Amino acid sequence: xxxxxxxxxxxxxxxxxxxxxxxxxxxxxxxxxxxxxxxxxxxxxxxxxxxxxxxxxxxxxxxxxxxxxxxxxxxxxxxxxxxxxxxxxxxxxxxxxxxxxxxxxxxxxxxxxxxxxxxxxxxxxxxxxxxxxxxxxxxxxxxxxxxxxxxxxxxxxxxxxxxxxxxxxxxxxxxxxxxxxxxxxxxxxxxxxxxxxxxxxxxxxxxxxxxxxxxxxxxxxxxxxxxxxxxxxxxxxxxxxxxxxxxxxxxxxxxxxxxxxxxxxxxxxxxxxxxxxxxxxxxxxxxxxxxxxxxxxxxxxxxxxxxxxxxxxxxxxxxxxxxxxxxxxxxxxxxxxxxxxxxxxxxxxxxxxxxxxxxxxxxxxxxx
Length: 368
Description:
The chain is of the alpha/beta class. It is about 45% helix and about 15% strand. It has a 6-stranded parallel β-sheet, with helices on both faces. The protein has a 6-stranded parallel β-sheet with strand order 9-8-7-10-11-12, with helices on both faces. Strand 5 (about 115-120), helix 6 and strand 6 form a beta-alpha-beta unit.
């Protein structure tokens, strides 16, 4: 008997989760987690990608989720046709696309295969309404749902395209709260400030380095470990290294490779920082507060939903190294009992806002 007929008999929904790669990004981490959660709910799940970057592949293998990597799809038209062929052959009930290009491809699939429910996900906050973004928003009129992971992006789309408002369902990121849980911390004499983000312009590495110079010149001791070396922008990485050396910060500021053991890095840190110019809902802030870390971050987009000024962290202007430095100094000056109060508050916020059950319930509503 045909597999699709059998699936219907047993009320099993077939879902394809479609993204560009399994690289070390926040969107990829969330789609892998969504695959696990849907599979636990007895869905027949396949993760589909077209770039050979397998940072998160071990997690999919751990969850025993079916994974397909399309080969020889460098040309855009060939990529669209191969994805369309795969979807047509597998005939899912629902396709969920993460990232901009997969979402565009998903729109074309909806035009050809209108019976498939198409859900696209917006993973960042749009800064410029360029031609590509206008095209993406125009094509969204064919999809069934648009799922931003930040309320700021949802409002932006509604403002630009009011006719899409009824399709928009914001679903914030989730965290595995059992895995990302607090450990007992002993305050170090020289506190460790951890950053986990790709080292490129939007993450504001150079501005952050300027701020650290101010902090050091004011006599404060610290160590910064930024996990995020990326070959995608090696020139910016090299500029960052040169600035660290020029400002005599190489004894306390370290730019490191992305880590597959990120939980241990949170456990070793005293504070978490994310100085980016814009975000969607950053996985790393969500994970950091789940681990009970006080957080310093830019006062942009949805960050203030997870970081409360003077309660579990500090918010700053990413365009002002002086303001970043002032907030870092506030953190470094924090008395011990306040530090532990901030730590407990971070965990409370995480439990209220970031549970996997809340995340999957929202997806189930729009899938079913």
